């Protein structure tokens, strides 16, 4: 009787060890770093494209001159319409 109990305990222990989930290894993220000297610089424009001008005209109906001026400045520096709008909203408001 004593022997069967110990045998059962051993079998239970083996099952626990075999069924125990293995710890997952964390993958290290690869970090891509560009050298700042080699990064391309945005070219500043002298005027907006026709499409940008049309969008600005339509957009300017419900925004202040200060907002529109900041957007124009950002877009001439190379920002997209959406990026310029978000920046102007944060700095100037509507």
Briefly characterize the structure.
The protein is an all-alpha fold. It has four helices and no strands. The chain starts with a helix and ends with a helix.
Protein model, in words:
The protein is mainly alpha-helical and 94 residues long. The N and C termini lie far apart (85 Å). Helix content is 54%, strand content 0%. The protein has helices at residues 2-19, 50-59, 65-76, 81-91. The longest helix has 18 residues, at 2-19.
What is the number of strand segments? 0
Q: Which blocks of ≥5 consecutive residues have pLDDT under 50?
A: none
Biggest β-sheet description: none
Counting H and I runs of at least 4 residues, what is the number of helices? Answer: 4
Mean pLDDT: 80
Spell out the helices and strands N to C. HHHH
Q: What is the CA-based Rg, rounded? A: 32 Å
Strand proportion, as a percent range, falls in under 5%
> What is the overall shape?
elongated
- Strand-pairing-aware structural class: mainly alpha
**Estimated helix fraction:** 40-55%
User: How far apart are the termini?
Assistant: 85 Å
How is the quaternary structure best described? single chain
List the helices and strands and how they pair.
Blueprint: H1 2-19, H2 50-59, H3 65-76, H4 81-91
Helix pairs in contact: 3-4
């Amino acid at each position: 009787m004593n022997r069967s109990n110990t045998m059962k305990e051993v079998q239970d222990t083996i099952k626990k060890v075999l069924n125990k989930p293995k710890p997952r290894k964390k993958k290290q993220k690869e970090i891509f770093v560009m050298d700042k000297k080699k990064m391309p610089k945005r070219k500043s424009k002298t005027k907006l494209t026709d499409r940008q001008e049309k969008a600005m005209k339509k957009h300017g109906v419900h925004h202040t001159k200060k907002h529109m001026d900041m957007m124009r400045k950002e877009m001439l520096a190379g920002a997209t319409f959406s990026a310029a709008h978000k920046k102007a909203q944060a700095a100037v408001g509507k």
